Amino acid sequence: MVTEENLSVLSLILNASLLVQGVMAILFLASAISWVMIVQRGMYLSVAQREFREFEETFWSGVDLNSLYKDMSERQEENFAYSGIENIFRAGFREFNRLVRVDKPDPGAVMESTDRAMRIALSREEENLSTHLPFLASVASVSPYIGLFGT
Questions:
Q1: What sign has the CA pseudo-torsion 67, 68, 71, 76?
Q2: Fewest CB atoms less than 10 Å from the CB: which of 64, 117, 118, 146?
Q3: Distance in angstroms (rounded) separating the CA atoms of residues 43 and 39
Q4: Of 8, 10, 27, 30, residue with least CA distance to 19
């Protein structure tokens, strides 16, 4: 006769074979690590989105780009960390200023080099945004098979 005590989650785990307990431990650990990463990514993306909106409002407000760049450079000297769109702007504007100071700069070369600097900065920011995604994708695709192995 099956009693309610025998069907509790704890009794089922304790009475399972060592292999099944190991599989459950692996799945629990993968789940806990995944949730930590999901919460961390959610917080990071939320902050990145807020900083993007703030920068976009400032950028399109008509502020002088030289003064915006100067303010950002002064804040960086105070160990203020920039991320996202601000890094892309700084990289492009720094390259633009460097090339414009050359005697008789070729406008095409200036724009091409500025575009290249911004694409490199964009690539770095995309890499930061996608941190831990391969791990989460692997856990999501492998977990059902690990669970089936335990049954």
A1: negative
A2: 64
A3: 6
A4: 27
Are 51 and 84 spatial neighbours (Cβ–Cβ below 8 Å)? yes
Q: What is the pLDDT of residues 46-85, one digit of tens each?
A: 988 998 999 999 999 989 998 998 888 777 766 566 678 8
Q: Can you state the angle between helices 18-59 and 133-150, rounded to 10 degrees?
A: 160
Question: Is 83 in contact with 128 (CB distance < 8 Å)?
Answer: yes
**Token pair in block for residue 24:** 């459950």
Nearest to 149 by CA among 26, 11, 13, 35: 26
Taking Cα atoms as reference points, which of 146, 149, 151, 133 lies closest to residue 27? 146
CA distance 53 to 32: 32
Q: How far apart are CA 37 and CA 14, in angstroms?
A: 29
Name the one residue in this structure whose structure tokens are 């990145």.
48
